[in-house]
Specification:
single chain; 253 residues; alpha/beta; Rossmann fold; 8 strands; globular
Length: 253
């Protein structure tokens, strides 16, 4: 059975709507660790979600933004951001990575957070008001059709989101399009340890849970190269279940 892009996006949308509502009401973690990634639930293994930021000095960042994190790493820590840069976070969720990037680029820099879920955007904007962060903007849109001009950002980051895109070739091409020449792509994502079967890819719950849409390291590198990136690195960081690992992916536009 083959799932359509519309079915996949609807499943992901519903899962993240639920996650946003849960985070807005009362973020809380569960005692048991799942055997696979659970991006839309706080019950994530060590090194995922909020625990990926264990060394973070949150300072004036809203605690709720940290607790709402649904990622598989800390892309800001690997991006090497500098003051004055323009940054785009693909799938910005509750806004944590946007706020961390805004600190790095300073008042002369700017950070866009892109998300397709109204509830997540509402949550992120509430966190923005709470933190008083002014050098950021949250945009509604799809990572396969980014609502920004060509060559408009210096760095693209993302945290466990690209695996959710049905059309990864489009997502890679869009990331390359909005980057300036020589710009950096630095993301954390889930990478499959082997090609997934058609049956595994038909599982909508597994798509929303960051597994069924994962591609292998070789497929990731090939997709980025085809989109125009160079110097692609895919570096596994930790297990993410029986069929996948979390990884750092870097490339240059």
């Amino acid at each position: 059975m083959t799932r359509t892009p519309e079915e996949i996006k609807q499943a992901v949308l519903e899962r993240y709507r639920s996650a946003a509502r849960q985070a807005a009401d009362a973020p809380a973690c569960c005692p048991d660790e799942p055997t696979e990634p659970a991006a839309a639930c706080c019950c994530t293994p060590a090194g995922f979600g909020a625990s990926a930021y264990s060394d973070l000095e949150s300072g004036d960042l809203p605690e709720a933004a940290l607790l709402a994190s649904l990622g598989c790493g800390n892309p800001v820590a690997i991006a090497g951001l500098r003051p004055g840069q323009r940054v785009l976070d693909l799938g910005s969720g509750g806004g944590l990575d946007v706020f961390l990037a805004a600190r790095k680029v300073g008042p002369e820099g700017f950070v866009y957070g892109l998300d397709m879920t109204d509830e997540m955007l509402d949550l992120a904007r509430a966190h923005q008001r709470q933190a008083g962060v002014t050098n950021v903007e949250f945009l509604k849109g799809d990572i396969e059709a980014i609502p920004l001009p060509d060559a408009s950002v210096d760095v693209v980051i993302s945290n466990c989101v690209i695996n959710l895109a049905p059309d990864k070739a489009a997502a890679f091409c869009e990331a390359h399009r909005v980057l300036v020449p020589g710009g950096q792509f630095a993301v954390s994502d889930i990478v499959a340890l082997r090609p997934l079967t058609d049956e595994e890819r038909a599982d909508l719950a597994a798509w929303a849970g960051c597994l069924a849409g994962a591609i292998t390291a070789g497929e990731y590198a090939a997709g980025l190269t085809a989109a125009g990136f160079s110097g692609v690195e895919v570096i596994p960081t930790q297990r993410a279940g029986l069929r996948a690992v979390a990884a750092v992916i870097r490339a240059t536009a």
